[in-house]
Design goal:
Layout (H helix, E strand, L loop, with lengths): L6 E3 L8 E6 H11 L4 H8 L3 H15 L4 H9 L3 E6 L2 H14 L5
Parallel strand pairs: 2-3
Antiparallel strand pairs: 1-2
Helix pairs in contact: 1-2, 1-3, 2-3
């Protein structure tokens, strides 16, 4: 996904949260961040390269308007940001395939 995947909508009323749209992987990285994990721990948990985590975080900070990881967590924790996750058709198909595999092939 390109950086254009991250879209944001500025609040229209005072006190209304900022809304951003992220990929499911970016949401996973943000979750790890909010749980206090280091970049290395997030990478291990998601089985991706640490550089990939750094790239996701850089894009998330830009979308959130965050200065750093502490600011990003604070924005999420205080409800100043609504995060919407974009799910791809591939992810939907993979989830359906896993359900079929777990149920023994019955659809």
């Amino acid at each position: 996904m390109t950086p254009a995947t991250l879209r944001w909508r500025p609040p229209t009323r005072p006190g209304e949260p900022l809304t951003i749209v992220v990929t499911s992987r970016q949401a996973d990285v943000l979750t790890g961040l909010c749980h206090g994990l280091s970049n290395r721990e997030i990478a291990r948990k998601l089985t991706i390269a640490e550089d990939s985590v750094k790239t996701h975080l850089k894009r998330l900070y830009a979308s959130l308007g965050a200065r750093d990881r502490c600011h990003a967590v604070a924005l999420c924790a205080t409800g100043e940001v609504d995060v919407l996750v974009r799910v791809t058709q591939f992810e939907i198909d993979e989830a359906a395939r896993r359900r079929r595999d777990l149920s023994g092939g019955a659809a």
